[in-house]
Amino acid sequence: MNKKAYFGDFGGQFIPETAMFAVEELENAYKKIAKSKEFKDELNYLLKEYVGRPTPLYHAKNLSKYYGHEIYLKREDLNHTGAHKINNALGQTLLAKKMGKKKVIAETGAGQHGVATATAAALLGLECDVYMGEVDAKRQELNKFRMKLLGANVVEIKDGLKTLKEATTAAIQAWVNEIESVFYVIGSVVGPYPYPTMVRDFQSIIGNETKAQLKEKGINADYIIACVGGGSNAMGIFSAFLDDKNINLIGVEAGGLGANTPYNAATLTNGKEGIIHGMKTIVLQDKFGRILPVHSISAGLDYPGVGPEHSNLFKTKRANYYAVTDDECINALKLLSQKEGIIPAIESAHALAYLEKLCPKLDKKSTIVVNVSGRGDKDMDTVMNYKKGRIYG
Ligand SMILES: *Cc1c(COP(=O)(O)O)cnc(C)c1O
């Protein structure tokens, strides 16, 4: 067993023999190229000048007053393309270019990772194919159009439920078929090693900046909260604080209609150990080990697995994970919009919704950092049509 491929009991490389060559090539390139000073300088330049980093760590005074605790927001919503996904898409696409690949491919659900990858490919002059389930492509027409406008080719997948799980399977197949010339850009801290490590490292800029910004402001955080789909924005911010046991790390999953109903995507709350997309992790599954369909109002959290490092943080109790429902998320989105004039992505609103549960039970005044992983512009249709007439009525 390749020890470094594991986080405790989770991770590994559960892939066909034909893909072994590609993950080994990637591991070597990641270690040699992505760790070099030249690569880091170039990536940091792009993150600063193109993406707009560092993102602020904003003291949300109105929300702090409302909850009676000091609340700071890490503003990943202010990145170019509107979310944290660009940090990773740019890192992997730059690595693909340095490896001499001609094309990047990506899977996408709602289209956010597809748009981020298409953006990076346009900037760096690589071809880009994005695999997307046919159902998702219909639901997210605007993002499909955006990717095409950016010069990417959108491949619609008609298998199974025609959503993210099938798109990922198709992207893995396409990668294996054209393994010499194609680089597979995975959108979260999932997949076979080295992806969960590499994606975490590209996203760790979120946590590193937060740590430096807290220090500069002269404050200590007691809690760090992030939403968890595959888990990349959460690992990105958690990674800088793993060794500081005074800081409580909280991941918030999509509880959908309720974590105790069949309609949720609360993997760590309800799942069991299993294998999905090349990794051993915790998976939502039935008693025969078949992967369950998932439900969440937020397409970005609608995934039946979770990154293996989160499974390990969950099992070792270094981080705690909770689920919030669609209703709670919409209320949190409305609250931040009206208290601070910041409309968060519905994914990020899950992390904000947990404040409602946490704040009343804290016995001393605490400092809480919430990672606002993205902006809500993409979600206005969903919010407008959610239980129509209710949230503004
Ligand atoms: C995709 C997405 C997520 C979920 O992905 P993670 O890998 O869990 O971070 C969260 N927030 C936003 C805004 C997203 O676009």
Features of this protein?
alpha/beta, globular, TrpB-like_PALP, Trp_synth_beta/beta-like, tryptophan biosynthesis, Tryptophan synthase beta chain
End-to-end distance = 58 Å
Q: Supply the helix-strand structural class.
A: alpha/beta
Low-confidence stretches: none
Q: Strand count, sense and closure of the main sheet?
A: 6 strands, mixed
Shape: globular
Q: Any idea how many domains?
A: 2
Question: And the CATH topology of the largest domain?
Answer: Rossmann fold
Question: Taking all residues together, what is the mean pLDDT?
Answer: 95
E-strand count: 14
Write the CATH architecture name of the largest domain.
Answer: 3-Layer(aba) Sandwich
Distinct small molecules: pyridoxal-5'-phosphate
Estimate percent helicity. 40-55%
In CATH, what is the class of the largest domain? Alpha Beta
Number of helices: 17
In what range is the share of β-strand residues?
A: 15-25%
In order across it, which strands form the biggest sheet? 3-4-14-9-10-13
Description:
The strands form four sheets. The protein has a six-stranded mixed beta sheet with strand order 3-4-14-9-10-13, sandwiched between helices. The N and C termini lie far apart (58 Å). α2 (37-51) crosses α4. It folds into two domains: 8-47 and 84-194, Rossmann fold (3-Layer(aba) Sandwich); 54-82 and 204-385, 3-Layer(aba) Sandwich (Rossmann fold). By secondary structure, the chain is of the alpha/beta class. The chain has 17 helices and 14 strands. The protein has helices at residues 17-34, 37-51, 61-67, 85-98, 112-124, 134-139, 141-149, 164-177, 195-203, 205-217, 232-238, 267-270, 308-315, 326-340, 346-353, 355-358, 380-385, and strands at residues 6-7, 10-11, 57-59, 70-75, 103-108, 127-133, 153-157, 182-185, 223-227, 248-254, 272-276, 279-283, 319-324, 367-372. The model has no long low-confidence stretch (mean pLDDT 95). α5 links the parallel β5 (103-108) and β6. Pyridoxal-5'-phosphate (PLP) binds at residues 83, 85, 112, 188, 227-233, 300-301, 345, 347-348, 373-374.
